[in-house]
Each structure stands twice: as C-alpha cells, then as structure tokens.
C-alpha cells in the first residue's frame, strides 16, 4: 500500500491534546512552537498545518 | 534516375520542411534545443520518405507497399511512448510538474505531426505525378496552411474569463477570493505567501468548460505554464510554498494561487490567457444525447 499523505510530526503546547502516533514535540509557548515547526518543515520536507492555535502537524503531501 | 526520382525527391523535401515548420522550440523548451530537434527532424525525414514512396509504388501496381505504412504507424507510436517516458522521468525534477495530462498531450502531438508529414509528402508526390510541379507546389502550400491551422488548439483565454483576486488568510486557511486553497500553519510562511502570492479567479464561459477546467491535469498545466513563464518562488526544502488551484463547488469557478518571481500582474494575465486547453481535458456534456432529447 502506498500512503499518499502522512503525518510526520505533531507540535503542541498542550500535551493533553495529543497521544502517541507520529513523533510529538511539546513546546513551552507559541514562539517556540513556531520555531520548531519551521525547522521540522525544512528538515522533513512536509508542510506545517495549524489545527488550532496550540496544535501543528507536519504533513508529507 | 527514372520518372519518379524528382517527384519523390520533391515529396521528401516538402515533408521534411513541413516537419521543420511544425517543430517550434518555444517557452516550454521542448523539444530541447538542437539534439531533441535533430531526432524529430530525422523522424520527419523518414515519415516524408514513406509518404513520398507510397504513390509511385501504387502506380507500379505494387499494392503490398501499403503494408509499409503500417510499419510507419507502429514506428510513430513508439515516438509517442518515447516522448511520454522521457517527459515523465523528467517531471519529478520540475519544481512545478507538468502533470500526466499535459505530457500525454505533448506526446500525442509528436505522433500526429509525423502523420501530417506523411500526408503532406504523399499529396505533394501525387500531384506532381498526376499534374506537374506547379500544381504540387500549390498543394504543398495549402497543406502547410492546414498544418499550421491545426497545429495549435484553443487557449484558455477563449473559453474562460480571468480576473485578479486578492489572496487572504482566515486563521490558518489560505483563500483566493472566497475559494479555500490550503492550510498554512507557520506565521512566517503566511507572511511569505502574502508577499509573493498572487491570486486569480477563472470563470467558465459555458457549462462545457466547467468540467474541462475542473480536470486536474488541465489545472496542473496552468500552474506549470505560469511557473515557467513568470518563475516560481519555491525550493525543494519549502514544500509550503506551492502554487495550487482549487475549485468552487458551487459554481465551478477555479481559484488559482501562484507564487511568481515576476510580480507583473498584466504579464500574469496574459500568460494565463494563452495556456493551451489540453485536448484530453475537453469535455462536451452538452453534446450528450440525454441532454438533447428533452
């Protein structure tokens, strides 16, 4: 089976919102979250999508 | 030297010239300059020879010579496969890919142009043999004109209205006019998109056009052409910066979001209008029997 899209990483400031699955990065605040997401986006070659203000996912398209 | 030498020579020259005229390296840079061209000129020469030789063969009552043409057909189908394979291979290295529909369109064009060459040289030789060289020249010129006319299909500007539309964000959602494009999470990316992004709304003029421009291949072709002509703000490490086209399900309009390096609005409109309509994307729902019986 070929996966068209996959969640590569989850970045959040609220650890209650996530459970295991893709790699999870828990951040202190929004600034840190933005930085981590920007780095991960470049490293993983995926796009960071905002699900809410405290939850980003990196998706490979 | 015999009575057929000059007519055949004439047919071959006319056919090869026809291929040369149809072979235009434009903004698409395909066929690639020089080497790609030589391949197609050589094939055009072969096609012209086949067309030119067919007539004298028939006149000599060598009817089996027609089977020659079937070899030509399979030969040129091979040309189509070759073009398709090369272009598909290269497509994964394009910043904005052409897409399979566009590639198939190009491959079909290459095959069909060889057949046009066969017909041109066949007619040229035939008229030379039946009448004389002057009639043959007139017929050849007529063939050129027909070839030229049918060489290029219609362009996007003829079937749709194109308008500039603002690019905006609602939260993380990127919109062109009121058409949702994609979700961009990072504020940094959002700034880049607002800085470089340009939006257009394409309205279909008729119901038929709706499904043609909804075709994913046609949409990819629009993005590819505009990225080739105006450049694209994008690199391999920045997947978020991607030109996209989404559809308004209510009325069939499509929202075009592009990231051109050349920010000239009029230029962008011009390029959009001259995007070719892919023959594989054209649909004619109005021609369906079920619609006309009402």
Question: What does this entry show, briefly?
Answer:
Chain A has 61 residues and is an alpha+beta fold. Chain A is built from one helix and four strands, in the order ββαββ.
Give a written overview of the molecule.
Chain A: Pfam families: YIEGIA_cap (PF21835). Chain A: InterPro entries: YpzH. The complex is a heterodimer of chains A (61) and B (294). Chain A is an alpha+beta fold and 61 residues long. Chain A is 25% helix and 38% strand. Chain A is built from 1 helix and 4 strands, in the order ββαββ. In chain A, strands 2-1-4-3 form a 4-stranded mixed sheet, covered by helices on one side. In chain A, a hairpin with a 2-residue loop joins strand 3 (47-52) and strand 4 (55-60). In chain A, 26% of the residues are buried. With 294 residues, chain B is of the alpha+beta class. Chain B has 2 domains: 5-152, no CATH class; 157-286. Chain B is 57% helix and 12% strand. Chain B contains 11 helices and 7 strands. In chain B, the strands form 2 sheets. A 4-stranded antiparallel sheet of chain B has the order 1-5-7-6. In chain B, strands 2-3-4 form a 3-stranded antiparallel sheet, covered by helices on one side. In chain B, helix 1 runs parallel beside helix 5 and helix 2 (35-59) runs parallel beside helix 4. The A-B interface holds A 34, 37-38, 41-42, 45-50, 56-57, 61 and B 171-172, 182-189, 236-240, 242.
List the helices and strands and how they pair.
The complex is a heterodimer of chains A (61) and B (294).
Chain A: E1 6-12, E2 23-26, H1 30-44, E3 47-52, E4 55-60
Parallel strand pairs in A: 1-2
Antiparallel strand pairs in A: 1-4, 3-4
Chain B: H1 5-22, H2 35-59, H3 67-91, H4 100-130, H5 133-151, H6 156-159, E1 160-165, E2 167-170, E3 173-176, E4 179-183, H7 187-196, E5 198-204, H8 207-214, H9 216-230, E6 244-247, E7 254-258, H10 265-273, H11 289-292
Antiparallel strand pairs in B: 1-5, 2-3, 3-4, 5-7, 6-7
Helix pairs in contact in B: 1-2, 1-4, 1-5, 2-4, 3-4, 4-5, 9-10
